[in-house]
Amino acid sequence: MQMQIPEGLPPEQHPESTPTQEQSSENKQSDPWPKDGLTEITNSLNALANQTAADRIPNQKFQSRSIAVQWFLFAATFLAFGAAAYYAHIARLQKDTMVSQLTTMNNTFKEVQAQSKAVVDSAKAANDANRLTEESLRGRIAIKSIRLRSKLNAGEVVSVVVDTENIGHAAAIVKTRGQVEHWSTLPSGPMKLNKPLDTGELLEPGLPMTIQIFDRLPLTADFIKSIGVPGTPSAYFFGRFEYESLGKRHSAEFCAFIIRVDTNQIADSPAAKGYGVDQNFGLYRCPRWHDSD
After folding, report:
1. Where is pLDDT greater, at 81 or 190?
2. Which residues make Cβ contacts (< 8 Å) with residue 29, sequence separation at least 6?
3. Residue numbers of the domain that contains 89
4. How far apart are CA 16 and CA 14, in angstroms?
5. For 83, which of 32, 100, 123, 283 is 20 to 30 Å away at the CA?
6. Are residues 70 and 127 in the same domain?
7. Which residues have CB under 8 Å from 136's CB, separation 6+?
8. 3 vs 8: CA distance, rounded Å
9. Its pTM surpasses 0.70
């Protein structure tokens, strides 16, 4: 009796061609890595390797650029230090040169100072020698004496005589001026003459010169009687010689006043010794106005 197979059903398979469940389990046990899993792992590894290689290329470029920049900075720093060292060397050389020049200038200045001092000392010595030579050779007017010309008499004009001499070794052109004033005491301050000096007169070395000074008014008996009384006036005779010798000007002053002879009060007065023509009166040197050069 034949069995009919309904249409639409798959034909019956041979039992040998269909693996059993046990065979499938054995096959799985004999193949530990399925092909699909290996492929996936291989692909993952390849992708990772490719990604790593792709990432490594920019890093290598960045590292190469960084190394190049570092080498450039090193070279620039080295050159900068080299330039600084070179300029420091040049500056030291310039400093040494300036110090040497300054030392030379200081030494030169000291030598100039020493030479200048020597020149100044030499010039001073020469000037002193010239001055001494001039002082020893020039004309020099010396006042020898001042004396009354006559006795004091009422109604007469009193006068004095001034004796001078050129005691120098050169001629001198001499100008003179004398004056008389009635004072109770010598005024303070320098001598003042009312009139200018007379015309100059040439006086050779060793020659004398005599001038006379006259009072303006005749003497009165009361004036003669009051001479020597404290607080009363006396006749003051004073004047100046101005002369030029060897191109330079010089002067000599004189001053004397009439006193009454008193050997007890004026022991150092020439009049106290009876000097002059009047035994009762004489001339006494003023305390000032005797400058000369």
Report:
1. 190
2. none
3. 33-137
4. 5
5. 100
6. yes
7. 169
8. 15
9. no
